[in-house]
Amino acid sequence: GVDAYHPEKYGNTITVERTIRRNGGSGYRLLSQKRTCVSTKKMDVDEIRDRFNLFVENPCCILDQENAKAFLKGNASQKYNLFLKATELEKMMTNLHAEKVVRKRNEVEL
Q1: Do residues 43 and 36 make contact, with C-beta atoms less than 8 angstroms apart?
Q2: 43 and 59 inside one domain
Q3: Which H/E stretch holds residue 53?
Q4: Alpha helix locations (H) across the chain?
Q5: 9, 43: one domain
Q6: pTM for this entry
Q7: Where this protein primarily resides, as one coarse class (predicted)?
Q8: What digits encode the pLDDT tens for the residues 29-71?
Q9: Is 61 found in the same domain as 40?
């Protein structure tokens, strides 16, 4: 489509495979529509994630075991922190704080 990400390289679909090894290591493979490996670099996975605004850390998108445990057994504070992550408010507050720091620095320079 119009917003396709490098269609000449990937075709109509991009498949991300992640391998997690017993020793704790992991790796990625980006596959084209023809299932051929285009890249194994995490940087390329991150570029695709950023390009399409995919929030894989969001517990509403992917509820991993740790977040599920925090939700089921957590106290009110832990549940609120999970809410902040899920709604992206935590990220927004971090970005807002960083912008305030930059603004103060720029005001001092003027």
Answers
A1: no
A2: no
A3: none
A4: 7-10, 42-51, 65-73, 76-86, 89-109
A5: yes
A6: 0.57
A7: nucleus
A8: 999 999 999 999 999 999 999 898 887 777 777 777 887 887 8
A9: no
